[in-house]
Amino acid sequence: MSELDKDAAKVPMIELADGNRIPQVGLGVLRIDDEGVTPVVESALAAGYRHIDGAAGYNNEGGVGRALEAGGWTTGERRRDLWVTTKLRDSEQGYDSTLKAFDRQIGLLRLDYVDMYMIHWPTPFDWRSDVSWKAMRKLRNEGRIRTLGVCNFLPEHLERLHDETGDWPAINQLEIHPTWQQRETVAFCKAHGIAVEAYSPMARGKDLAAGDGTIERIAAAHGVSPAQAILRWHVENGTIIIPKSAHAARQRENIDLFGFALTPEEHAAIDALDGDGRMGHDPMTFSYA
Ligand SMILES: NC(=O)c1ccc[n+]([C@@H]2O[C@H](COP(=O)([O-])OP(=O)(O)OC[C@H]3O[C@@H](n4cnc5c(N)ncnc54)[C@H](OP(=O)(O)O)[C@@H]3O)[C@@H](O)[C@H]2O)c1
């Protein structure tokens, strides 16, 4: 095993209800342009990341695909060791439009299959998740998607999807960080075997200073960074995380979470930071287009 593969092996795999296994830590690539994302994905793969979280809406799938192809990650054993997620644009929801969007996206990514395809927002005011899901199911049956997921679904959206398709998604990707923990939705997911994946796991950086220095004090006690203290809290909660950094040193930091543990008191102190710290959008009203 190479040094790199040893690093990757430290990241636990989370088993999903569909039997697939996802690396608990991945790299988010939101707000990085198509040209800039190629070296960012390359440095993450070099740091031991084996999970990339993208979306059509990030307008950089081509740049992700170039990094994967250049590193030999699109075929063979390397491909099998990698988890690639991408997401359907809200404006492309619908049966035929999902199939068409997927063809374009997989071409940009230079892959034969993606590990996970997700509905990006529920858009309950223009609900098409039922037909989009049926198209995604067809793609899974054809072997072009391994796992089907959703993002930003509240319990009522999960129930509606289940009523209309008979399925629960394997994963729900939600905004979760110390000051916005969404406990009710997380509990609903756990009760229905839906794995929880945290986006903006550090509140885009804002929670690094949460609780009047609580995070900083916990980090200092372990000789780690505030980012590592927050990400370790997520890991201990069993949550899948996709921190974004465009910088190689921070990418290494954000995956180096398995050499320390929070005390029960420290873990509880971060639990107690829950509040109204939402950084992103309200799934009841938002569309990413
Ligand atoms: N499904 C959805 O609707 C949805 C919505 C939002 C996000 N996401 C996904 O979740 C991913 C992560 O969320 P996010 O990008 O919103 O927020 P995040 O990961 O909580 O925070 C990223 C920010 O923190 C900084 N940062 C990263 N590591 C750091 C470290 N070790 N120390 C200090 N600062 C650090 C980054 O700056 P640098 O890059 O300059 O290091 C960036 O400004 C996204 O990239 C995307 O893949 C999904």
UniProtKB/TrEMBL annotation:
GO MF: oxidoreductase activity, acting on the CH-OH group of donors, NAD or NADP as acceptor
The domain of life for this entry's organism is Bacteria
Keyword Membrane among UniProt keywords: no
Q: Does the keyword DNA-binding apply?
A: no
Domain NADP-dependent oxidoreductase as annotated: residue spans: 30-274
Q: Which residues are listed under the site Lowers pKa of active site Tyr?
A: 87
Q: Matching Gene3D superfamilies, A to Z?
A: NADP-dependent oxidoreductase domain
Alphabetized UniProt keyword annotations: NADP, Oxidoreductase
Active site positions: 58 (proton donor)
Residue sites binding substrate per the record? 120
Similarity remark: Belongs to the aldo/keto reductase family.
Q: What is this protein called?
A: 2,5-diketo-D-gluconic acid reductase
